[in-house]
Amino acid sequence: MIGNFCHWQIFKNSICQSQFCLFRKMVHHQFNVVEKYGFNGPATPLPDIVEWLSRYGEGSVDLIKNSETGIAHVTLNQVKKKNCLSGKMMVDFYHIVEDLEQWTDGKGIILSGAGGTFCSGGDLDVVRQIANPESGFKMASLMHYTLNKLKNLPLISVCFISGAGAIGGGAEVATACDYRLMSNEPNTKIGFVHSKMGIAPAWGGLLRLVDIVGSRQALDLLLSARLLSCDEACSINLVDSQIDSLDSVNVWLQDKVKFDKESIRAIKLTLSACSEKNRALTELEQRLFAPTWGCAANREMLRRAIKHK
């Protein structure tokens, strides 16, 4: 459960004392700030975070389950804001993933956005209301929990990146799926624009990105904050294939999950178990992110609304 942050000790014990001292020295001031967000003492209980975050913003995340095909459709729905994630939508997403965890008829998930666009990241109107490290850490905790659980479900997941694409937090959401398919429209991009906004990834996207494209390529994408076309994203294996419509995505996934449900779920659960070794590091990611949320640089970028420029 998210309230248990004992994994910090596991991380500390997994490296030698000299490495740990070097790590502590490297993050010196940030480390002292980060300790306030979960290394010592109890974290905010998950139900309290859910209740608090549900008050912020509009939109919804919608779920349709098809027991005949075993495929669930999850739709991000705040069309007027390019499906950016409000606090309410983050809570909807959390509840949907909890629901899918109990869906024994399931084989696959398609994650897409309403109105032809995937996800433009976090809702900046909501971000401005919770732009302080404590709120940032709580928000990141819920999204990390939700996306980590999505990644580890015994279901094969694919997202369809279309329209304005997957930007910032939207790109992090995309990495939580097993596959990423992308439209080849000129305006459809994927990009980790966090550094442009004065923050760092906090929803587990950094380590998932490293798993997908390697550390060197991940570093370049994070530092440059550049937006990639479908062809560019496919060339570095960030995106698996170009595809033209949501209907085509459905056909593509049905081919992936055409065999016995139990074997598919067993394969996925085994692969998920292999990734658990990084859990302590993804929780560390949240703590390093927290002091950047609402800092001077982040507030200036929010004021200038620079995310899509």
Automatic annotation (TrEMBL):
Cited InterPro entries: ClpP/crotonase-like_dom_sf, Enoyl-CoA_hydra/iso
Protein keywords: Lyase
Sequence intervals crossing the membrane: none
GO biological process terms held by the UniProt record: fatty acid beta-oxidation
GO cellular component: cytosol
Alphabetized GO MF terms: lyase activity
Name of protein: Ethylmalonyl-CoA decarboxylase
Provenance organism: Bemisia tabaci
